[in-house]
Amino acid sequence: GSALLQKVETTAVLSHKTGVELITTNDNLHALGFYQRRGYRLTQLFPEAVDQSRKIKPQIPAVADNGIPIRDELRLLKNILARGEGMRADE
User: Residue 91: its pLDDT value, please?
Assistant: First the structure.
């Protein structure tokens, strides 16, 4: 996962992007820790968003293996400095 994420971030920098966004679900504690340790910050909560996802993918379970109900989506963002740019996405 780390190598793939680094590749995405490098591609974003080379494409003159100022940030990388991603979404995960509220139950995915492992992923939330993984992303936060790599500089991603929680920026938005989408309550009950997984209900919409289940309309497309009904096999999404109601409860994760860890016992947490799967309900919400969380957006995370990492600001990156694009080469040749003097500002970050939040400036």
Answer: 37
Question: What is the average pLDDT across 14-22?
Answer: 93
- We report the CATH number of the domain holding residue 12 as 3.40.630.30
Query: Which residues contact residue 12 at a Cβ distance below 8 angstroms, ignoring those fewer than 6 apart?
Result: 19, 20, 80, 82
**Chain Cα centroid distance, residue 34:** 10
Q: Which helix (H) or strand (E) holds 77?
A: strand 73-79
Tell me, yes or no, whether 90 lies in a domain. Answer: no
Eight-class DSSP state of 60: S
- Phi, psi (deg, nearest 5) at residue 38: -100, 15
- Residue-number span of the structural domain to which 50 is assigned: 2-79
DSSP string, 11-39: HHHHTT-SEEEEEEETT-HHHHHHHHHTT
pTM of the model: 0.81
